[in-house]
Amino acid sequence: MELKFTSFAFLLLFLARIGDAQPTASPEVFDVTKYGATTNGDISKAVLDAFKEACAATSPSTIVIPKGTYQMNQVKLQGPCKAPVELQVQAILKAPSDPKQLNADVEWLTVNYIDRFTLSGGGVFDGQGKQAWDQNNCKDSKSCSNLPNNLSFNFLTNSTIQDITSQDSKLFHINVNGCKNLTFIRVNITAPPESINTDGIHVARSSNVNITDCVIGTGDDCISVGDELEQLHITRVTCGPGHGISVGSLGKTPGEKPVVGVYVKNCTFINTDNGVRVKTWPASHQGVVTDLHYEDIIVQNVSNPIVIDQVYCPYNQCNKDLPSQVKISKVSIKNIRGTSRTQDAVLLLCSKGAPCDGVEVGDIDITYNGKEGPAKSSCENVKPKFVGKQNPPICAGAQSS
């Protein structure tokens, strides 16, 4: 009897181990060519039809847009879905070049309310924005942003955007809103310097966002931060051309919520207008920006490598006589080195209405090789604490250690 029991137990253990060794089932694949997509044709309906089935699947699924060049109109992928979904874009996708063919209130590709979404594949989202940039006259028009972004991610959780390229967007390349635990890795963003208002990645109203190993060159901020943001980590990003990595602009709209926790580390800026920057409007509404940390940054021929600008007023469309009411605090700027294109290497221009607190600057080594003289700094309404080297000398008379 004991022998039979032992043999039976051994059999159960053997079967269990066989079960454990079985490979995990591959995701179900939904190829858009099976839904009517053809090269050089509009694949919008095919993408939507494939997504509808993939989103309804109870096991992980992958939507594939295979190699080739396809036209695509505006598409919205709306969750929630029953299981993880991956959109694998291997192709070059082209948006309509004429902005009049698009609804300005809808982005080119929108992804909403999905948990465990992945966008991958090595493909290119070509916004064909040149015609739109010529119409995007921000200097003379307050409504110059009435164009679609290339990619919009809203209310995604535990999701990843990787190995894709956004090219020549009509407005922002990527807009992130209401997301939690979202990672961008090996994303390439490209547009010429004359592409007006084409922020690379704009992040707002989100938490725990990571941007890593990305190369961004565009006509506006490489990365920009809006309000209600918690814990943004930017690591090993190369920026240029562009306007740098910017927190803000903030304070223009009433009721903006705090920005808490922005970490920029091991990044490189090449031929940009700015390096690391915080910008708030004068005559602003109240706001809070705190816990900002910039470390191990290389600047190469950057016009303004380090900037806090609380009188940000593009095109003089504001009242500079009234101070910003956005409070900036707990800022560390450490180990920034390289070359400045102008003498203004460090600008810490804080608000007289809400002076900056808790600013620490250390190991700055930025040179200017122009004929006008060495690099210099300007400081207003701030008393930084210094650690280590200061080149140029910053805020003479501030506390050092």
UniProtKB/TrEMBL annotation:
Highest taxon in the source lineage: Eukaryota
Cellular compartment(s): Secreted, Cell wall
Alphabetical list of PROSITE patterns matching this protein: POLYGALACTURONASE
Active site: 243
GO MF annotation terms: polygalacturonase activity
Keywords carried by this UniProt record: Cell wall, Cell wall biogenesis/degradation, Glycosidase, Hydrolase, Secreted, Signal
Protein name in the entry: Polygalacturonase-like
Gene name of the encoded protein: LOC107821133
